[in-house]
Structures are given as structure tokens and as C-alpha cells.
Amino acid sequence: MFSSRLYHFCVATILCIFLCHASFHAEMCAETEKQALLKLKEGFVHEMELLSSWNGDDCCKWKGVSCNNLTGHVTSLDLRFSNFTIVEDLNYLLDTMPVMEFFSGTTALGGMIDSSICELQHLTFLDLSHNDLVGEIPKCIGSLGQLTQLKLAWNGLNSVSDALSNLSNLQYLDLRKNDFVASDLDWLSHLSTLRYLDLSNNNLGAVIDWPSSISKIPFLSELYLNDCGLPQVNPQSMSHINSSTFLQILSLSGNNFDSSILSWVLNVSKVLTVLDLSHNELDGSIIKSFNSLCQLKKLYLGSNKLSDQLSDYLRELCSAKDLEVLNLDHNPFVNGSLPDFSLFSSLERLSLQHTSIVGPLSFGHLPRLKALDLSLNNLSGSLPVFEVTKFSSLHFLDLSHNKLSGTLPSTIGQLSNLWFLSISSNELNGNIREEHLLKLSELKIFDVSQNSLSFNLNSDWVPPFQLVALYASSCILGPQFPMWLKQQRKLQVLQISNTHIMDLFPEWFGDISSSLLYVNVSHNKLSGVLPKSLSGIKTGIMSTWDFSFNNLSGPLPPFPPKVYELFLSNNMFTGFVSSFCETSPLSVTYLDLSSNALTGPLPNCWQKFQNLEVLNLANNSLSGRVPESFGNLQSISSMHLNSNNFSGEIPSLTLCKRSFRFVDFGDNNLEGTLKTLLELDHLVVLRLRGNRIRGSIPTSLCNILSLKVLDLSSNNITGEIPQCIGHISAMSDREFRRETILYGTSAPLIFHDSGIGHFIDEISLTWKGRNYELGRVLGLLKAIDISNNHLTGEIPQSITSLVGLIALNLSRNNLTGFIPDNFGRLERLDSLDLSRNHLDGRIPTSFSNISLTYMDLSFNNLSGLIPLSAELQSFDVSSYVGNIGLCGSPLENQCPVEGIPPRGRVEINDDELGFYIGRWLGFCVGFWSVCGTLMVKSSWRRAYFQLFITVTDWMYVTVVIFTARMKRKFRS
């Protein structure tokens, strides 16, 4: 027996040595697979560090490639682009703070998937997700018979092949977020081992029998079909579908399903633990459907049309004691108080955002609750005392956008697991003291903005937390810059605008964090210079820095190279912009340096800012010529150079004519003609007011069909208004489309957008006789101002086709002729100024159709009665002064007869004169043709009188006979 054991021991030892030796001396990858990988690399468009390692003889050592240690065959290919973290929607109420990573210089894979991938016959795992791949999935991919996981999500692939049905060992298939358009899903029924399927965010609108196809996958346990445009189900066709004993997770969010989808959901599985029907059209008729889904642990019904009382739905949940996640947000429930959730003893996440909850805030005992969202409701009263025993597990608390009042209870500082706290946009007041933050060591997101709270913290206080985001706008942090921020080394978002800080900008700010993504310290009274250390801060590629509306001075400092939005307006920065060109971030897309004290000419360096979309240099003291390099900004959409001292000719901007939407060069000393700028045929706003523009208005103006605001006032423009002006279709649109010319990013952590920076185009426009700064309403405005020029000729009839016009100013020109009769077509016109011209004739009666709030027709040659309407009689006399021939209310000189103009000023046009002359001549000819002949020819005269006597006798006899008959008739 001993020898037998010794034998087996020796055999086992030799075998172990052999296997260990083999593992350390595995074969190199097969040459055919190495060549296949290199060919696959050639098909990609890439700058990835990942593929830079693809060289050398052994492909098993390349990044993203894994091989079998014994055979050397490639078994796994992982080329997903993972240089960022996707943060799920807040509706799912995260347990922990997601890690935010910044984009580096590397980019995702582009191009197509080469068919050489099919030569990797031993692949079991393939992940190419989160790239920019396009085209089709190679049909030969169905030959990869050993593949168990296929992940192609988040690409631009446009076709899915039926060949996938040959992947008989496939267990995991993720094709979400592509451009697939499918007409059937029958191929899925051949994937007999499939456990996980995600086809979300593809176009499946033509797959009529999708429920039947899904039901044929025998062992499917997780199914995601979100935002696929799926057709409605037919409840009558559900009878032949067998219930699955495996499907546990079902997500059908965002398909506009009505309540009939419940017939399939209840039939397809009896063991569902997770159900997501959010963002659909479900109504109150489903209220009884959930009493049979007793296995549910997570239920998402947000953004539907659920009505009735919120508490009515809770009674029908037979899984109340086991439910862990409940999301009912954004439903139109009947106004009611917060229901009692004490029966939901296992509840961990609860979202009732925007569900019409009113009244006081009160909580039951929910010992496992981790996340609670009651934002966007009408909760009122004071915050309750947060008992640690009730909320010991709480990680996430959002009470923002309610009507909560009073002070912040100090017990909130005992919630030691809290990482997200938002109480913004309420009516809270009082102080935030150290005891409020005492034990919040896990706090990462802190939002108290839009309240009347004051931070009352010692200058040497050291916080127990390291914040990632602080939102405190419209609170009181000042007057000193909060020193406790100096300890926050992980800040990515700092929003402390309008916080009453009146201090020097701190030198240590550049050391506050190595990864600031968003900074907003605007609308304070910060002074001094910005430190040069700012340039050393590492930022994300979409970073926003807003220092506007302060008292900062000195030259423009260097900024981090990857700043995306930079707002420095309304400060006291001085010096030349040339320094900015030398040290500026080349990735800047929105640059606002307006309303400062910048001087000198602009450098001719703008060609290197190829990402620049918005440039605002308005309200400075810049001079010299406009740089020619502006014409190379091929991404530029909006440019403000107004209110400076620029001179010389307007440069050619034709290279960027496709992108330009907004041009404001007003109030400078620019010369030249309009021809150059009118080549920008996608303009929405063109303002050249207060320059020295000469020449006439070219007919090419009429080709800018998107033009909504045109201001050419106070120039030296001559000639006539083009007759084709009525062809500008954007001004002919009666609808108010809020195409607000608004630029900027949303909150970088996507939790909410409170106070996040953006840029709104503004314009100074003469409206209703006064200058206005128009911003947010600019997208609704349609206006023409060509006043104070040297225009001649008549107002073109076609201008009345611009029925969407809100404001029209043609004053202070040399226009003649009549006001077009059909001027009343401009029913949306609010402001009209035709004063100080040489217009003749009457005020058209169609004026009574226009609801004007401002009108000036003064100092013309108008005459006749002022038409009667509530608006025209309500204007002051100054609106009509200087028109000698006008009469009627509100003027004192009334017309002699209502509707008849006064003597001495009767104007008859050519048609009326011809009519009167013709009528007089006809009368004269007819009269003398008869009477003259009778006077001259006696025989005709005798015959005429004889005829007259004969007719008279006949009439007399006829009357006598008729009278006699009537008398006899009455007697009888």
C-alpha cells in the first residue's frame, strides 16, 4: 500500500511540475491571430495608448489581449474606451459617490470592425464598447462559436446581422446605444444559452412581433429594451406566450407604452424582481396590476401619467415589505401629504420627485433607507429633527426646490454616512455652524444654494469632509473669502456666486485642487489680481471658469490649457489682449472679456483658436483694425465687438459663413459696404449700428432667410430698401420659437443645473424709442432697424409680408410715397417708428388691426383722418406732430365732417380725376345730343311734342278706366 501511495504521489508531483512549467512557458500567440489583430488595428481610426502597445512578436502581451496559457490562442479582446465614468441618472439613486474622471488626450476608436476579427476563432470575450465605430457588424462574426460575451454598446454601428444567431454559446449580448434599425428579432430565438440582452437606444419601431421573439429565448434572465420606439402590444396576442421561469430583470423605459403593456409584463414572467416602466404613458388603470407581482424588489414607474392619490398605489403593492427601490417621480398625482411608508421596512431608495406632495415633512421609521429624493414638490414648514436612529443608513438626501422654511436642524450633522445633501431653492434661513457639519465625514456633494443661509464658521475650522462639489450661490459666505475651502483638495465643482464676498482674491486658490472642473465666483466684490498659479490647475476638457461681475483688476493672467468656457466680463482688467494670445487655452470655446478696461489693437493670432464658438469683447477700449484672422474661425457662431473704437474695413468672414449666427459690430468706426457681411447666409442677428457703413443695401440681404434681427441704424447707407425684403422667411413666421441664442454646459456632475455657467447673447436695441439690453428674450424677437441713414424711395409693399415682425424702425431717412395700404397684416407688430421722413397720404385704415404699444409717425406729410381704434387714439399727440394735414383724435384739429378731410388739403389721385372728367363729358354729350337737335330742327320738334301729347292722353284714359272699374268692384 505504501508503494502504491508513493507511486501516486510521484505521478501527482510530476504532473504539477509539468503544469507549472507549462504555465510559465506558454506558447506565443499564433502567427495567424497576430496578423489578424494587426489587420484589425489598421481598420481602426485611433490615437489610443492602448493600441500603441500592439507591436512585438508575442500578441498575448499586447494591452487588451488575453490568451490561453497552454495554447497561446487569443481568448479575450477588451478594447472598450474607459477613460471616463458614466454616471447613471439620479432616478436610480446611487449608493455611493461616482468617481469622476477627466478626459485625457487619448480618444476612442473610430472606423469600422474589420472582418479579420473572425480569424480569432478561440475568442470567448469581445468588448469594443464606448467607442466611435461605424458601419456593420461583420457577418462572419457568427463563426466565433466559442464566444460567450459580446459587448458592442455605445458605438455608431448601423446594422445587426442575423449571423449572430449562430453564436450558440453566447450568454451576454450588449448592443445598446447604436444606430441599429431592425425589422424583426427572430434571430434571438436561436440563442438558447443567452442570459443577458440589452438592445436599448436602437430603432426597433418596425418589430411588430417583438413580444413573441423575446419570449422564445428560453433562459433569459435580464432584458433591457429602453428607448427603442417599440410598438404597442396587442393584449389578444398574449394568450400563446408562455410565462418564463427565468426572467427576473425587465426594463422597458422610454417607449411611450400605454397601460396595455402590463398584459405582456404579467404574462412573460412570474418571478420578476426588477421592473422599469418609467418614461412611458401608463395611466391610473394599472393601479390593480401590481398586486400579482409579489416578487418585486425594485420598481421604477417615474415619468408616466399616474394620477389619483399617491397612497392608493402604495396599497396595491403586495411586495411592500420586500421592496428595496421605489421610484414614482414626475407623475401627476393628486395633491396630498407625504404617505406613511412604515410598511416598507426593506426600502433602501425612494424617489418621489415632482409628485405634487404638499404639507409638512414627516418621516416614518425606515431603518434601511439609503437614498431619499423629495425634490420639486410643495413641502412646507420647518425641517424635522433628523434622528440618527431613524436615518443611520442615509447616504443621499434631496429636499431641493420646495417651500421649506426655518433654520437648519443641527442633528443633520449626525448623519455620518451622508455623501449627497441638497436643500437648495427653499426658504431656509439662519446660520450654518460647525455643529451642522460635525460628523459628515463622507459628504461629497453639498448644495444649499438659493436660500438665505449664512455660513458662520471659524476661519481656522478644518472640515471633516473632502467635498467634490459645493453649491452655495445666493447664500452668505462673506465678507471674507472662506478660508476653510483651502483644505478641500478634491474639489471639482465650486459654485459660490452672489455670496457677498468682499475680499482680495486669495493667492492660495491655485492650490485648492488639482482637478477643478467648474468654478463660479461671479457676482461678488472680489478685488485684486488673479494669481498666476491658476494656470497649473488640471481641468477637464469641458471645464467652466466664471469670474464675471467682480472688481478684479490687472492684466489677464494665464489660464489652464484645457479651459472650455471662460467668463471674465464686468471687471476692471486692463492692458492688451495680446498677452492672452500668448498664454491662452487653445481649447477655449466660449470667451467673454466684455465690459472691462482692455485697450490697444487686437493681435492677429485668432487662427489657432479653432474651437472658438463665442467671442465677446464688447464694451472695452479696443482700437485698430479688426484682425483678418477672425475669418479663419471656422467654428465661430457668435462675435461681439460692439462699443469699442475699431476702425478700418470689415474683414472677409466667408470662411466661417456656415457657422456664423450672431454678429454685433455696433458702435465702432468701421467703414466699407455691407456686401462682405451679407455673405453670411445663416445669420440670425446682424447689428452694425453706429458705424460708417456706406453704399446701398444689396439684394443679397434677402437671401439670409434665417435673419430675425437686423440693425443697420446710424450709418451712411443710401439707396432704396430692397423690394425683395419680404422674402426673409424667419421674419415671416408668425410663431414664437424660442431659439434662444444660448451657449454653455450643464452641471458637470449632472445631478442638477443650479447656477451652472452659460453664455447668453445680448444685444442693445432701440425699441419703443429707448435703448434696451435684450438677452433671454432675444430668441423671440424679430426686428428691423434701419433708422438714421440716407435711404430714399418708398416703403416696399413686400415689407408687409414680414408678418412675424415685432419691431420696425425706418425713422430719420428720406423715404417718400405712401404707407402701404395692407400694413395691417403686421398684426404682431409692437413697436413702429416711421418718423422724420417725407411720407404722404393717409394713415391706412388697416392700422386698426395692429395692437401697437409704441408708434411714432411724427414729422412727415401725412394727411386725412386718423383711423379709429383703441390703440391709435391712445397715443400721445407727439406720435402725430409735424403732419399738417392730419386731423381727428387725439389731435385738436378735428375734421369738418367725420370721415371728410378738411378743406385746403383734398388730394385726388389720377384714377379719381379720370372718373370725374369722364362723367362730366358723358353728361354734356348726352344732353346736347337731344336738346340741341330739337332746338335746330322744327319737324323733329313738332313730332316730339305730338308724341308727348299722345302719350299723355293714353295715360289719362287708362287711369280713368281703371278708376271706374275699381269703384264698381267695391260697390258690388
N-to-C terminal Cα separation, in Å?
A: 163 Å
The CATH superfamily of the domain at 672-907 turns out to be Ribonuclease Inhibitor
CATH top level class name of the domain at 672-907: Alpha Beta
Shape, per Cα inertia axes: extended
**Unreliable stretches, pLDDT < 50, 5 or more residues?**
17-26, 84-92, 100-105, 738-758, 898-909
- Average predicted confidence as pLDDT: 83
Helix content: 10-25%
Could you tell me the strand content as a percent range?
A: 15-25%
What would the CATH topology of the domain at 672-907 be? Leucine-rich repeat, LRR (right-handed beta-alpha superhelix)
The helix-and-strand class reads alpha/beta
**Counting H and I runs of at least 4 residues, what is the number of helices?**
10
Largest sheet: 31 strands, mixed
Q: What oligomeric state do the depicted chains represent?
A: single chain
- CATH A-level architecture of the domain at 672-907: Alpha-Beta Horseshoe
InterPro entries: Leu-rich_rpt, Leu-rich_rpt_typical-subtyp, LRR_dom_sf, LRR_N_plant-typ, RLP23-like
Family: Belongs to the RLP family.
Organism: Phaseolus coccineus
Keywords: Cell membrane, Glycoprotein, Leucine-rich repeat, Membrane, Receptor, Repeat, Signal, Transmembrane, Transmembrane helix
